[in-house]
Amino acid sequence: MEYNLGIEQGKPRKTSTTVKVVAGVAIVGSILTGVLFFMNGKDSFLAVRFSAHTLLPISVNMSEPVKAMDIVVDKPVVPKLPLPVIVDILTLPEDITAQAIMVKDVKTGASLYTKDEYVVRSMASITKLMTALVLLEHGIDWEQRIAVTTAPVLDTHMYAGDVYTAKELWESMLVASSNKAAYTLAESTGWGMDAFVSRMNDRAMELGMGYTRFTDPTGLDSTNVSTAADISLLLEEALRFDKIVSGLHKKEIVLYSDQKDATHKAWNTNWLLLGWIPHEISTFVGGKTGYITESGYNFTMQLGDKEDNMIHVVVLGAESHEARFTEARDIAKAVFAAYEWPNTKTALGVAGEVLKKQAY
Predict the structure, then answer these.
(1) Which residue range(s) make up the domain with 62?
(2) Using CA atoms, how far apart are residues 84 and 8, in angstroms rounded to an integer?
(3) What is the DSSP annotation of 87-126?
(4) pTM attached to this predicted model
(5) 233 with 242: CB under 8 angstroms?
(6) Is the pLDDT of residue 39 over 90?
(7) Do residues 68 and 133 both lie within one domain?
(8) What is the pLDDT of residues 242-268, one digit of tens each?
(9) How far lies 225's CA from each of 102, 196, 206, 240, in Å?
(10) How is residue 224 annotated by DSSP?
(11) Is residue 80 part of a domain?
């Protein structure tokens, strides 16, 4: 097959002065780049290549060049913040029942304690954090009134046919972990459930959650699977959004059901937030629970100590509802006791000076 490229056959094409100049600059640039490459070493000339989709507000690992051809920029040399240093023996209670654990420093991403963090397990209602991310990406009319789904979705807080605002459904999903609320909001996008779940999986890949797979927006299906390491990435992304943080922080909601002609109070499923589990947490940023028979009791949270050092804690497969909270609490306490964080202000000051020198 031949393609007409708009060039008349048999006649030489005239080369403009501009083209000649550009070609000359390109040749000279290539020669200089080659010379400098061998003088300074190849590491000085690594480029980061990334496509337009990575400009969206999502987590992107910039530690290695990303292969694409949309945009090419020089790889920035960013000074690394000093890592937390272990200064004491990290001693955990002997009765820890969680099957998988991940503790990560938020600022540096350093793993501070792990146990089977890459073992794939059912995540249950932690799934709803990704549901929330995709809903925000789609856009939500918070005052829109939506009828609760008639799909056979297990739930103890909502009844098919009741009508709530999108805001009420959102809070029910994040506060009370309502399955019907999550499913109803996913339906309300108009995408169809297959397309919605497909976007959940695409978003997981964008976040680097390579061991994660979603099959529904509620987490009821045991085939919604992930790892402790991946869930830490999901939590990090979710807590970037104020609407998610505020939902996770709300202690209770009150719902009125036309179907039952009754008012119903639903408490947050996070007992640490409610204070029903004693703790000494200085700063609680947000957390999400999950449970089905196949998963055991799951919990993930971000918290900080008195010096505002922030960590993620993920516990999967604890043996009881209460244990997931007490174990997450005790693990966090042990990590804070065993590690010392460098002075953040000093470290940032040094980093700033390095960046300043690079600018000149």
Answers:
(1) 32-74
(2) 68
(3) -S-----TT---SEEEEEETTT--EEEEESTT--EE-GGG
(4) 0.75
(5) no
(6) no
(7) no
(8) 999 999 999 999 999 998 889 989 999
(9) 16, 17, 17, 22
(10) -
(11) no
